[in-house]
Please model this.
Amino acid sequence: SQFSQFFGPTTIRNNANPRNYVYTELGDYSAVTGISHLNKNSRIHYNGKVLTGDKLEYHRNTGFGKGTGNVTFDDPKENRYIKGGYGEIYEKKDSAMVTDKPYAVKIFTEDSMFISADRFLSYQKLDSNNVKKSYLRAYKKARIYKSNLQARADSISFNESDGELHLLKNPIVWSGAKQISGDEIKVYMNTQTEEI
Model:
């Protein structure tokens, strides 16, 4: 049959890359269009990352996926997840977007950093030495909360691989009794010791 419905635990694997797959306990799949609708305890696994949500849709041919309701985009390699009401993934570009009251949590060994904003973008990009770097962007009304640092700015760009945090447009940073403001603020974190 060209159309399948699932009423129990089901996994659909990508033959070219078996690590990329979808899982659901209620949904359907069209072999003609390559589109899956996932409606219960569903996950989209791609490139070591996972998108979950109340309702998911995945397009096998394009690598596009979207989720609505209690969306979580988890990136275990970066020890970071983003939660929100709506999310999209772009498997072939190795990127994701989360909106609808989103927040991100970057987990460190001794601490965590919470970031809130109107929209998050997460993506991978090769640097000049052909090394893949992970980036997190937070747009509009961005806020950061960490035990030794609080900040706000219109937008934030975070190079997670190198620990560079850029706060853009009217940024303010508080650390202990100190306050810093300016047109743009750059914060550098040691990715090994997690110190600022």
